[in-house]
Amino acid sequence: MTAAGRKNLPKQLSSAIDPGDVVFLRVSDKLITARFISSGVGALIFLALTAVPLVLKLTGVWAGYPAWLAWAAPAVVVIVMIWEMILIPRQVRAIGYAERDDDLLIRSGILFHRVMVVPYGRMQYVDVTMGPLERMLGLSTIHLHTASPGTNALLNGLPAPEAARLREQLSARGEAKLAGL
């Protein structure tokens, strides 16, 4: 992509650390639904726990508990849950990947942009997983394992057929680069 073409991209899709000649492919928008469900379930459990003092206060069981604190704890949970639900679509749209001749680029982050470069020759194996929620939505997660234990190359939210194609492609490229050593 040329510099003129990058100017037309929205700010969220373009970053100062992105290579200028690379077009990133986005993950599936179904990942938004998956994150809404998982975050929503966690938030509802946390809301139920923080609402216990409020219920005890309102029923008169715990009359000495401060009313402001009984209302504040669940209110904070609701505010954080709403904020997270606003951020999730932007976070998912910021995730992307690009296959180049020698490496795979993985981009993520809204406030803190991150571009990870995983050379094909360093890949030891490619792992594709699919949890129950991902299976229900037809999504997969790819884990790229290298010799470095600190490498956390993870790409979630890929449609299952794309994940299978990418696994085969990355494995073949990794073997070809490794054979050249």
Topology, element by element:
Elements: H1 3-7, E1 25-26, H2 30-58, H3 67-93, E2 96-99, E3 103-108, E4 114-119, E5 123-129, H4 132-137, E6 139-146, E7 153-159, H5 160-179
Antiparallel strand pairs: 1-2, 2-3, 3-4, 5-6, 6-7
Description of the molecule:
This protein is of the alpha+beta class. Helices cover 48% and strands 22% of the residues. It contains five helices and seven strands; from the N terminus they run H-E-H-H-E-E-E-E-H-E-E-H. The strands form two sheets. Strands 1-2-3-4 form a four-stranded antiparallel β-sheet. The chain has a three-stranded antiparallel β-sheet with strand order 5-6-7. The longest helix is centred in the first third of the chain and has 29 residues, at 30-58. Mean pLDDT is 88; it is low at 1-13.
For the structure shown, list the relevant keywords.
single chain, 181 residues, alpha+beta, PH-domain like, 2 domains, 4-stranded antiparallel β-sheet, 5 helices, 7 strands
At a glance:
This protein is α+β, with helices and mostly antiparallel strands and 181 residues long. 48% of the residues lie in helices and 22% in strands.
